[in-house]
Write a structure and sequence with these properties.
- By secondary structure, this protein is an all-alpha fold.
- The chain starts with 7 loop residues before the first helix and ends in a 15-residue tail after the last helix.
- The protein is built from 17 helices and no strands.
- The radius of gyration is 21 Å and the shape is globular.
- It has one domain.
Length: about 450
C-alpha cells in the first residue's frame, strides 16, 4: 500500500511534457490541414477529416477494445504471463483483417454518403488505413502500458507530424486530391507505428524485434482462455473511450453526411482550433490517473480537489485570447474561403472552458477504481450530442454542430466536476482497487 504523495515538480514536468507532445501533434495537424486546404480547398479538408477518423474507429471496434486492455495486461506481473503477446497479436491481426474487410465491403455506401464525388474503388483502397491506424494505436497504448511515458509522448507528437512529409511525396510525383491524402495517411501511420513497436521491443529488452522463446515473444500460439479475458476486459473498458471519441467526432460524421465535405472542411478547422483548450485536461487525465490510483482514498481526494481550481481558472483565462484570435488565425492560415469557420470556432471555445477541471475529475474517477461513473456521465453527453446534432445541423449547418457540441461538452464537464466534488468530499478512507488501463487511450 503506497501512502506517499506524488512529487509536485515531477508531476508538473510530466504533465507539461505530455501537453507539449500533444501541442506538437496539433501543430503538425494544423500544418497538414493548411497544405490540404491550399491544394484542395474546404472539400479536401473535409475528406481529410473523415479519413483520419472513420478507419481508426472501425479498427478499434474490431479488436474488441484491445487498446483499452493493453495497459492492464502489460502491467506487472501480468506482462510475464506465458503466451500473452501471441494472444494480443492474434486479436490485433484478426481485428485488422476484419475491419479492413468491413470497410471494403461498405465502400460503395461510404462513398455515396460521405464522398459523393469520389469513385467507390478509391474509397475501398482507403480501407488499408484501417490496419495501419490500428497498428499505430496499439503501439502507442502498449507504450503506455509499459510506462514508457517519453516514448508515448514521442509517438503522440509524431502521429500527426509525420503526415505532412508523407502527403508531400505523392504531390511531388503528380498525385493529387483524395488519392494523395490516402497515401499520405497510410505512409505516416506505418512510419510512426514501426517506431512505436521498435520502442516497445527495446522496452521489453527484445533485441530481435520481438523474437523470444517459450511463448514470451510476440509470435507463437495464442491462449484462447487468456484471449477471452483480454476481450472481456477490453470491451468493458472500451465503453468510456468509445463514448469520448463519439462525443468529439460524431458531429463531424453527421455534418459530413448532411452538409457535404466543403462545409465539413471549415468545421473541422474550427473544431481542431478550439480543441487546443482541451490539451491540458487530456494531459492531466493521462498523467494523474495512475498517480492518484497509488494514493490512499483521502489523499487522492485532497489532491484532486486542490487541482480543480487552478485547472479551471487556467483554461478560462486561456479561452479569451483563443476566441479573439480565431478570425486572424483562420484567415491567415487557411485563406478567405475559411472565414465561415470563425463563428463556429468561437462557439466551440466556449464549450471548452471546463475541460481542464473535468480532466482532473476523470483522472480521479479512474484512480479510485470507478471508471464506470465516468462512462455514465460521458453517455449523457453523447445523448445530448446525438439529439442536438440531428436537430440543429439540418437547419444551421456548421454553426448548429458547434452549438450542439458546446452544449454536450459543458454538460458533461460540469457533471464530471460535480461527481468529483461529491465523491471526494464523502468517499471512504480506504484504498479502492483500481482496474489499471480501463478507459484510457
Amino acid at each position: 500500500m503506497i501512502r506517499c504523495r506524488p512529487h509536485r515538480g515531477e508531476l508538473l514536468r510530466t504533465v507539461l511534457a505530455n501537453c507539449s507532445a500533444r501541442l506538437l501533434a496539433i501543430l503538425g495537424l494544423t500544418l497538414a490541414t493548411v497544405l490540404v486546404a491550399r491544394t484542395g480547398g474546404p472539400s479536401a479538408v473535409g475528406e481529410y477529416a473523415l479519413l483520419r477518423m472513420m478507419p481508426g474507429l472501425i479498427g478499434v471496434l474490431c479488436v474488441l477494445g484491445l487498446p483499452g486492455a493493453l495497459a492492464f495486461f502489460l502491467a506487472e506481473p501480468r506482462r510475464e504471463l506465458p503466451r500473452l503477446w501471441p494472444t494480443l497479436m492474434a486479436i490485433g491481426f484478426a481485428g485488422a483483417l476484419t475491419g479492413t474487410a468491413l470497410w471494403v465491403a461498405a465502400a460503395p455506401l461510404i462513398a455515396k454518403v460521405f464522398f459523393p464525388h469520389e469513385p467507390a474503388w478509391l474509397i475501398a483502397v482507403a480501407g488499408a488505413t484501417v490496419a495501419s491506424q490500428l497498428f499505430l494505436t496499439l503501439g502507442k497504448t502498449a507504450l503506455q502500458g509499459l510506462e514508457d511515458r517519453r516514448g508515448g509522448d514521442a509517438v503522440i507528437a509524431a502521429e500527426e507530424l509525420a503526415f505532412l512529409p508523407c502527403f508531400v511525396l505523392p504531390l511531388l510525383v503528380g498525385i493529387h486530391g483524395i488519392a494523395a491524402i490516402i497515401i499520405g495517411l497510410g505512409l505516416a501511420d506505418l512510419v510512426v507505428a514501426v517506431d512505436a513497436w521498435r520502442r516497445v521491443s527495446r522496452r521489453l529488452g527484445w533485441r530481435r524485434f520481438g523474437l523470444a522463446g517459450n511463448g514470451y515473444g510476440w509470435w507463437g500460439r495464442p491462449d484462447r482462455v487468456l484471449g477471452k479475458q483480454v476481450a472481456s476486459y477490453g470491451l468493458r473498458g472500451q465503453v468510456g473511450g468509445l463514448i469520448t471519441l463519439l462525443n468529439l467526432r460524431l458531429d463531424v460524421a453527421i455534418l459530413g453526411a448532411i452538409a457535404g465535405p466543403a462545409i465539413l472542411g471549415g468545421y473541422a478547422v474550427a473544431s481542431k482550433y478550439a480543441e487546443l483548450l482541451r490539451l491540458p485536461g487530456t494531459a492531466l487525465t493521462w498523467v494523474f490517473y495512475p498517480r492518484l490510483a497509488k494514493l490512499e482514498q483521502n489523499q487522492a481526494a485532497g489532491v484532486a480537489r486542490r487541482m480543480i481550481r487552478p485547472a479551471l481558472v487556467g483554461i478560462v483565462v486561456a479561452a479569451v485570447p483563443v476566441a479573439l484570435l480565431a478570425s486572424p488565425v483562420m484567415r491567415l492560415l487557411y485563406g478567405a474561403s475559411f472565414g465561415s469557420a470563425v463563428t463556429p470556432a468561437r462557439v466551440l471555445v466556449a464549450g471548452m472552458i471546463l475541460a481542464g477541471a473535468s480532466g482532473v475529475a476523470s483522472a480521479y474517477l479512474y484512480g479510485r477504481g470507478t471508471p464506470g461513473l465516468n462512462s455514465i456521465v460521458l453517455g449523457v453527453g453523447l445523448a445530448i450530442t446525438v439529439v442536438l446534432d440531428v436537430t440543429l445541423i439540418p437547419r444551421y449547418g456548421a454553426l448548429g454542430a458547434a452549438a450542439a457540441s458546446t452544449a454536450a461538452y459543458l454538460t458533461t464537464d460540469a457533471l464530471l466536476i460535480g461527481v468529483l466534488l461529491r465523491l471526494s468530499g464523502t468517499g471512504p478512507r480506504h484504498r479502492t482497487t483500481v482496474a489499471v488501463g480501463e478507459g484510457t487511450s
